[in-house]
Design goal:
281 residues, alpha+beta, Ribosomal Protein S5, domain 2, Alpha-Beta Plaits, six-stranded mixed sheet, four-stranded antiparallel sheet, 8 helices, 10 strands, globular
């Protein structure tokens, strides 16, 4: 069985505060782009993972492995799964590639095992794997709160060419949170809501809200900061870092400028272009 596991970008990201369980409450908007890993799963006696990117772990530390392990324990079955991943999404890039892969495996397993599974069960399993994994069980854009698991679907279609740049810098999310905590001296002030209401005409308000991780990441990696401002110089109407980095995206309202940006960055970086009004199949 085959499926695409799409990457996401964050249209704004705020850290609201640290929780008693060690996680952080956030506000963000998750949005898919037309960049995806290709996932294949087959029945097997054991769990196994083969990935085209040798940097991706093939053991129980892989999110896909965890997805199989947790779900089969939940269902009380012993079936194994052979998973093959054609990795196109850069890792450690703020694009949710590992989480999307795991969610895709979770969606495929009920079909492979011919066992009906309630959505609530899949969501519970997804949250055990990672805070943003529940988002990838659905296709729509979503306003996310809590750890990222409290989702409000949005009928948001971006009328922009999305130019994504990854400078091949691997950033750890725990590092980013720790750096942000140190900068704020452990004080996460309560921020105003990103949106007073979730509306389809609020794109500019969402994008203008910013990404709290940018100051600490830009201080540690000047190259990432430079990419953001180069995108704006090349004609992007908005540019933001996605997640905790290291990817940066620019939104262009015309194809000519977008293609010039692609050409400019392709010499040194991973570049991907998503067409306007994209929605995953």
């Amino acid at each position: 069985m085959n499926a695409h596991a799409y990457a996401k970008i964050n249209l704004g990201l705020h850290i609201v505060g640290k929780r008693t369980d060690g996680f952080h409450n956030i506000e963000t908007v998750f949005h898919r782009i037309n960049l995806f890993d290709e996932i294949n799963i087959e029945n097997s006696d054991d769990i196994s993972i083969v990935c085209s990117n040798p940097s991706v772990p093939s053991d129980s530390s892989n999110h896909c492995w965890k997805a199989v392990e947790i779900l089969r324990k939940k269902l009380g079955i012993v079936n194994g799964v052979a998973i093959t991943i054609l990795k196109n999404i850069p890792i450690g890039a703020g694009l949710g590639g590992g989480s999307s892969d795991a969610a895709t495996v979770l969606k495929l397993l009920p079909q492979l095992w011919h066992i009906p599974i309630e959505t609530s069960v899949l969501n519970a399993v997804a949250l055990q794997i990672g805070s943003d994994v529940p988002y990838f069980l659905n296709d729509s854009t979503a306003y996310a709160e809590g750890r990222g698991e409290l989702l409000t679907p949005m009928k948001l279609i971006l009328p922009y060419w999305i130019v994504l740049i990854n400078p091949n810098i691997h950033l750890s999310t725990p590092w980013a949170y720790a750096a942000l905590s140190e900068q704020r001296r452990g004080n996460f002030p309560l921020r105003p809501r990103m949106l007073d209401s979730v509306k389809t005409d609020a794109i500019k308000a969402i994008l203008s809200s910013g990404n709290d991780f940018e100051p600490v990441v830009f201080e540690a990696h000047v190259k990432i900061k430079k990419i953001k401002f180069q995108l704006i110089e090349l004609g992007a109407t908005h540019s933001l870092m996605s997640g905790s980095g290291s990817s940066v995206f620019g939104l262009f309202d015309n194809m000519v400028s977008a293609l010039k940006a692609v050409e400019f960055f392709s010499k040194e970086h991973f570049v991907h272009l998503t067409e306007p009004n994209f929605f995953p199949n």
